[in-house]
């Protein structure tokens, strides 16, 4: 607190709460990672689904519910506070591992992913908003890098752990018991230890000019404001790639790896590099600016997907997963920092919700586009199509977005 009783802004001034929120977001990522290695194989081996479009129904259900929940998470965080939304998200997650581990029908798996989408939308959105609140304007890229690194390193680690558990003990229930433990710990920390951060946003708002919010934050963020709208489309395409990775990569990897452990390693590489890379790219965007890092990252992702489309060995797929992780790391925290740069603190939580509505809608778009393309033309053709879409998205950022970081040399010029 300052001498006037106002909360202090900055990561160092709020280190204990900021670190706690990093841990909580790691548990959010682990809850998502519990199904990443195993669910596509579960669909084929246990439920005997035929056709890639049918298999990807769980990605579609997850993506749609997470995208919609993101929007409401931002609005509810402004209205009711951040912590109640965070705790509600953990409560919704409680049935997820039970359904994944024991549901006798595929509709139970779909229901689990609907709940998982609501959980991720409420919890991940809220930890993002809370860290932006605490960090203040100067180190926003670092804050987002740490947040997203924690989440996706946990996704990677959990994908590897659940792949090992599935290989040793079977596809069900062992991998999902690990996820249940993460949910219990996350709920306990969020309820007992996490503190409300809305007052920090109100403090930062006093440092800005009294700018009236746009009449419609959804329309303004999605279409009218150049940097915000460019970020929304890039975020959607980025998660289109991730939807493809969640649903189809494990099946493609089985063609070069004879074990579930090998599939787990390849599946984990991408989010692991993604997670670690954000520790570099987040702070780098505070020094170098946002726009060019986003453009380059989208083009690197497109190149990595091209390698996947033509690859035919474990080593080539491993290189492609590393490149895909690098490209995604360049983009992910930088897009969130861009939203934080442009949106006024008075309506920033809603802008974050709108951005994440578009971004996580990419899961659903990816499920439909890649599933239909794979059914029509094959797995590799679907990956190649997504590579073209990703390259086009990078060019949109290059043309439409302006530099948003307040201390960037490009913006000063």
From TrEMBL:
Q: Which GO terms describe its molecular function?
A: transmembrane transporter activity
Q: Which residues cross the membrane?
A: 12-32, 52-73, 85-103, 109-129, 149-167, 173-194, 248-273, 293-326, 383-402
Q: Which intervals hold domain Major facilitator superfamily (MFS) profile?
A: 17-405
| InterPro entries reported in the protein's UniProt record | MFS, MFS_dom, MFS_sugar_transport-like, MFS_trans_sf, MFS_Transporters, Sugar_transporter_CS
Q: Which UniProt keywords apply?
A: Cell membrane, Membrane, Transmembrane, Transmembrane helix, Transport
Where is the protein situated, by its record's location annotation? Cell membrane
Q: What is this protein called?
A: Putative MFS family arabinose efflux permease
Protein source organism? Labedaea rhizosphaerae
């Amino acid at each position: 607190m300052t001498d006037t009783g106002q909360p202090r802004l900055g990561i160092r001034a709020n280190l204990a709460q900021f670190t706690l929120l990093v841990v909580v977001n790691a548990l959010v990522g682990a809850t998502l990672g519990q199904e990443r290695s195993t669910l596509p194989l579960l669909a084929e081996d246990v439920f005997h689904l035929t056709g890639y479009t049918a298999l990807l129904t769980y990605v579609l259900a997850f993506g749609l519910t997470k995208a919609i929940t993101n929007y409401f998470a931002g609005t509810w965080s402004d209205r009711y506070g951040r912590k109640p939304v965070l705790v509600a998200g953990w409560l919704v997650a409680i049935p997820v591992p039970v359904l994944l581990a024991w549901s006798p029908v595929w509709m139970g798996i779909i229901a689990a992913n609907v709940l998982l989408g609501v959980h991720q939308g409420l919890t991940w959105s809220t930890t993002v908003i809370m860290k932006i609140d605490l960090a203040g304007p100067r180190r926003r890229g670092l804050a987002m890098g740490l947040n997203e690194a924690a989440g996706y390193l946990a996704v990677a680690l959990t994908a590897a752990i659940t792949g090992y558990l599935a290989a040793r003990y079977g596809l069900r229930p062992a991998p999902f018991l690990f996820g249940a433990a993460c949910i219990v710990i996350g709920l306990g920390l969020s309820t007992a230890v996490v503190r409300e951060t809305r007052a920090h946003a109100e403090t930062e708002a006093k440092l800005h000019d009294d700018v009236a919010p746009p009449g419609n934050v959804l329309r303004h963020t999605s279409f009218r404001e150049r940097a915000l709208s460019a970020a929304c489309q890039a975020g959607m395409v980025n998660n289109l790639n991730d939807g493809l990775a969640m649903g189809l990569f494990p099946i493609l990897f089985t063609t070069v790896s004879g074990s579930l452990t090998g599939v787990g390693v390849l599946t984990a590489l991408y989010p692991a590099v993604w997670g670690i890379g954000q520790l570099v790219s987040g702070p780098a965007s505070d020094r170098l600016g946002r726009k060019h890092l986003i453009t380059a990252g989208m083009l690197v992702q497109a190149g990595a997907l091209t390698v996947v489309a033509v690859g035919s060995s474990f080593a080539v797929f491993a290189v492609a997963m590393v490149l895909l992780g690098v490209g995604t790391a360049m983009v992910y925290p930088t897009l969130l920092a861009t939203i934080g740069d442009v949106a006024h603190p008075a309506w920033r939580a809603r802008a974050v919700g709108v951005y994440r509505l578009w971004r996580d809608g990419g899961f659903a778009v990816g499920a439909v586009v890649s599933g239909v393309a794979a059914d029509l033309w094959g797995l590799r053709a679907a990956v190649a199509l997504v590579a073209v879409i990703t390259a086009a998205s990078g060019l949109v950022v290059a043309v439409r977005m302006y530099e948003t970081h307040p201390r960037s040399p490009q913006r000063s010029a």
